[in-house]
UniProtKB/TrEMBL annotation:
Signal peptide: 1-22
The keyword DNA damage is assigned to this record: no
Record protein name field: Peroxidase
One annotated GO molecular function: metal ion binding
Source organism phylogeny: Eukaryota, Viridiplantae, Streptophyta, Embryophyta, Tracheophyta
Swiss-Prot/TrEMBL GO biological process terms: hydrogen peroxide catabolic process; response to oxidative stress
Domain of life according to the entry: Eukaryota
Pfam families given in the database record: peroxidase
Cell compartments where the protein resides: Secreted
Enzyme class: oxidoreductase
Length: 319
């Protein structure tokens, strides 16, 4: 009987989560803020024109938001006397960026329709537009999220996959968020744009054996074997073939043992996801299609809707 009650409770939680996700709709702001999508697009276009890498940075910001408490803009909250945010968690400190871009877009949105659009929805739209502006796919973003008043540095430290993760650990981390192995591989393809810090790939280029010798030697030139110095912040492109073009070059790199992070190369190392990685390396259209679908799925992780949460006036602090 106790087992049945537990199963019923789990089913109830899942139903509530699915119900919340079902409330999201691409037309949510059509009446209340009709210029929203054009404002976000213009803000992202300016940011990406100034620095193409910013498209990748905003995409990563969205991922780090959704994997901690759901897609609720918790990652945007600053530390304060009454709140410990997520910005200084291990996976985020000296690494996440783009907060000022979201602030600027939020200011434009507030000027057009004050108190209407959540920071969580602005981030979801900005991530989509960043991908598309770098020649990637586009998709209809379900909207209607609200912003949390809380954050969890502990959850950011425990829920976000590490660059040293194994394939099994990655599959498990994504499964815990309702994302399957294909979603994992597709979303990992976000690494077709952007850069990584030496501190994230040092172990890979000095210790891993499933890496192209020439590739490892080149990366060692900017990443000394000892950590703790300024070189920890030295950057290398995640996809050296086309670092500011959203395509399937990342998967071709991984198949050729040119993955920059250990976790990248784990997607093609004799495990359960090798077949999907190989498919995307051959078929860029399949990757683009599956990436768009996986982004919608990730954007549905535990959103706050209805009367839950709030619409922040300032993305950095609760109202």
């Amino acid at each position: 009987m106790a087992a049945l009650r537990r199963a019923a409770a789990v089913a109830c939680v899942l139903a509530l989560a699915l119900g919340a996700a079902a409330q999201l709709t691409p037309t949510f702001y059509d009446g209340s803020c009709p210029r929203l999508q054009s404002i976000v697009r213009a803000g992202m276009a300016a940011a990406v024109q100034q620095e193409p890498r910013m498209g990748a940075s905003i995409l990563r910001l969205f991922f780090h938001d959704c994997f901690v408490q759901g897609c609720d803009a918790s990652v945007l909250l600053d530390d304060s006397a009454t709140l410990t945010g997520e910005k200084n968690a291990g996976p985020n400190a000296n690494s996440l960026r783009g907060y000022e871009v979201i602030d600027a877009i939020k200011s434009q949105v507030e000027a057009a329709c004050p108190g209407v659009v959540s920071c969580a929805d602005i981030l979801a739209l900005a991530a989509r537009d960043g991908v598309n502006l770098l020649s990637g796919p586009t998709w209809a973003v379900p909207l209607g999220r609200r912003d949390t008043r809380t954050a969890s540095q502990a959850a950011a430290n425990s829920n976000l996959p590490s660059p040293s993760s194994s394939a099994a650990a990655l599959v498990s981390a994504f499964a815990s968020k309702g994302l399957d192995a294909r979603d994992l591989v597709a979303l990992s393809g976000a690494h077709t744009v952007g850069s990584a810090r030496c501190a994230s790939f040092r172990s890979r280029v000095y210790n891993d054996t499933n890496i192209s010798a020439g590739f490892a030697a080149k990366r060692r030139q900017i990443c000394p074997p000892q950590g703790g110095g300024a070189a920890d912040g030295n950057l290398a492109p995640l996809d050296a073939l086309s670092p500011v073009r959203f395509d399937n070059g990342y998967f071709r790199n991984v198949v050729a043992q040119f993955g920059l992070l250990h976790s990248d190369q784990e997607l093609f190392g004799g495990g359960q996801v090798d077949g999907v990685t190989a498919q995307y390396a051959r078929n860029g259209a399949a990757f683009a299609r599956d990436f768009a679908a996986a982004m919608v799925k990730m954007g549905n992780i535990s959103p706050l809707t209805g009367s839950s949460g709030e619409v922040r006036a300032n993305c950095r602090k609760p109202n």
